[in-house]
Sequence to fold (134 residues):
Amino acid sequence: MTLSVSAWLQQKIDEYTFSVRDITVDFYLSQAKLDRADCSIQQLRQFNDTCVDMAEICQLNGDDHSYLHAMGKLHHRLVQEMGNSDRDRLFRIQAYQLARLSLTRLCHQLAMVGEWNKATALQSDFVRHAGWIF
Fold:
């Protein structure tokens, strides 16, 4: 039996909703690990991977707003970790490297929707926070 277009579309929307709900749980679990003082570089990478996975699910389903939101949360947290003096230098440098990648993805998406001022502001903010690396 074939599905009507309406039923097929509702099924795809439900699948997307469930996927986002599942990855949101993963996001909060990985964020909780990142909130601990003894967080490892591996947990930082896991947080990054979870956020990127969430953003990609959103992007594949045409949800540009949620894509920008997920990448924005990731980038903001990575920039925060770059400046966290309670973390060791290697952890902070890893956060810097991951933040460069998230900045690239964010600016690309912002450029695609014509938000040049936001992309420029993000770049300026990143350079300001990453000054200690140079």
Summary: The first helix runs from residue 5 to 34.
